[in-house]
Amino acid sequence: MTTEGTAGAEFRITATATEGGADVVVAGEIDLATAPQLRSELHAIIDGGATVVAVDMADVGFIDSAGLGALIGAVGRLRERGGRLELRHLQPAPRKVIDITGLHDVFELTD
Q1: pLDDT for 8-43, tens place per residue?
Q2: Which residues constitute the domain of residue 6?
Q3: 76-111 burial, b for 16+ CB within 10 Å, e for fewer?
Q4: 48: domain CATH number?
């Protein structure tokens, strides 16, 4: 899935099924324009039976409140099913947003 985010940044989501879950690679900005696509993809993965979803954010340089909302919604759905969401390879700017908002306690963060 590829779409244009704000400021013309290319946004891509690639999902690969794993045993019991999925690895999701996100590239581009996660903002008001792109968060609905991320939310839709994560919900489809979770509704498809995944209980462990790992989101690789190595190529995400920006995330806003809409993007955080999409990720928090996925955490809620996964927890209802006894699952978990991992955020991997956070860049400094998104990591700072997560730290400032106190969401580092909500997500499992790995390097």
Answers
A1: 458 999 999 999 899 999 999 999 999 999 999 999
A2: 2-110
A3: ebbeeeebebbbbbbeeebbebbeeeebeebbebee
A4: 3.30.750.24
